[in-house]
Write a structure and sequence with these properties.
By secondary structure, the chain is an alpha/beta fold. The chain has a single domain, classed as NAD(P)-binding Rossmann-like Domain (Rossmann fold, 3-Layer(aba) Sandwich). The protein is about 40% helix and about 15% strand. The strands form four sheets. It has a seven-stranded parallel β-sheet, sandwiched between helices. α4 packs parallel to α5. The longest helix is centred in the middle third of the chain and has 21 residues, at about 155-175.
Amino acid sequence: MEKNFWSNKKVFITGHTGFKGTWMYLYLYLKKAKLFGYSINYNTNSKIFSKKEYNKSQFFSKIENHNNLKKALKKFDPEIVVHMAAQPLVTESYLTPYKTFITNFIGTLNLLEICRDLKNIKTICIVSSDKVYKEKKKYKKFVESDELLGKDPYSSSKVCVEMLAYSFYESFFKNKNINLFTVRAGNVIGGGDWSKNRLIPDIVRSSKKNKKLLIRNPDHSRPWQHVIDVIFMYSKLIELSYKQKINGSWNVAPDNKKPIKVIDIVKTCKKFIDLEFKIVKLNKNYETKTLFLNNSKIKNKIKYSNNLSITNSLKWTFNWYISKEKSYDKTIFQIKEYMNNYE
């Protein structure tokens, strides 16, 4: 990998004010890339991008707005596109299924259709999800070639995105030598995530309010990983795609021999934050019980894997939430710490 690969690379990031999008933007900012962010301005992370230095390098609009997206992409004319804009929550998708499909599917369709006419584009990274796989009866790690099937609206919308990306690559980008690929990661933790009905944000809110955390799915298992590890893996795959043909789908997951249950995560969190919890049974919509990804494909290709253990991931996460520094400062601090220790 080139040491200064990202320097002056023109990178267009959708969803740059979201949880993962913020970390991606600031990580590449420190790498001295030329960045342009396209997002809706709706959550606490967006305050980071109220700084004057970002005013000329971002556009606030919905990904579903074809005209605005086209205007922004044509004006910036990127070499690299990282598509992170999405409605990312399973529970929200049951409440707003139409909005979920419009944002996730039509938003991606808009992006890919516009990218067809960009002259200097070399690679497109579509951020998908680990929830695209058809649930298995037997306990086994999912590999990228496994059958896809989304039972809930969110998962189904992401399966549609996977099919869309495959179709556009085969139909339009393959013959132009433009790389188009999807990355599948899930249960990403880290500072700055304030989403509803996600475990870590719920823990932080419960602790601050001195209320018991209600645990609905204690035995559900997930491939938990820190956001900076995920961003690091995305970036390395994009770097390689600049030199080699990279397409298809890629699992981004830790090396864990087994997935970790929600209840075990909660118990580990008690080392870092004051927390009381209670297990409850509620009538709720379906969610996959076990997600466990095989990361062999990406690990063999880019020769990297996640650097932070689950304990260190949680430690970094709660250090971020507990810190009284501004969001921007503590995010930059942790990115620099990661870069100094692991790159």
